[in-house]
Amino acid sequence: MNNEFVTHTGGCHCGAVTFEVDAPAKLLAFDCNCSICRMSGFLHLIVPRSRFRLLQGADALSEYKFNTGVARHLFCSRCGVKSFYVPRSNPDGYSVNARCLEPATIEHIEVQLFDDADREASDASIKGLSKES
By three-state DSSP, how is residue 94 classified? Predict the structure, then answer.
């Protein structure tokens, strides 16, 4: 994967929430099969906190926590889209829904499975993605 970053823009469906994220043009994203990700179609691009910038919509976000309460699921209170959140696996970063990014800056998305049925091994495989490289 190319380590040079471009600035991707994204947001929710209604446009109330917008953000930028610095990541390669060729993205590595994870398809998690846990109940909430499977039901919402979330495709995870995990980045360090420093590479994510919320441009607008902090006041439009609603939060949902369940199970361990570590993950902070953030939804647009107007349209209901979860375009990013703070994941349990990398609580010092963000997981951006690659499906909520503008396609113009994306060259390719490689998708890997994150198997929630084997969460310990899956967590180990992505641990540190929220760290600066």
Answer: strand
